[in-house]
Hints:
With about 90 residues, this protein is of the alpha+beta class. Helix content is about 50%, strand content about 15%. The longest helix has 13 residues, at about 40-55.
Amino acid sequence: xxxxxxxxxxxxxxxxxxxxxxxxxxxxxxxxxxxxxxxxxxxxxxxxxxxxxxxxxxxxxxxxxxxxxxxxxxxxxxxxxxxxxxxxxxxxxx
Length: 94
């Protein structure tokens, strides 16, 4: 994981909203990619999830014709302690 890549991924309000939503979920919870309330096309939504995966923030599993996203909570906390708490309490979409 690269902190600069993580910050770049979080610089978009939609991706920040996705991560903040996943932080609020129970650890290990899987969320359907359409469950975040984003009014985005499928292609745009896929693009945002790809950036979050490449930054190491989420993992995704394909089940049938849907993708489920999971926050990589343990890995993030191990590499960058306190980052998820900072994101959930202090960062606001612009």
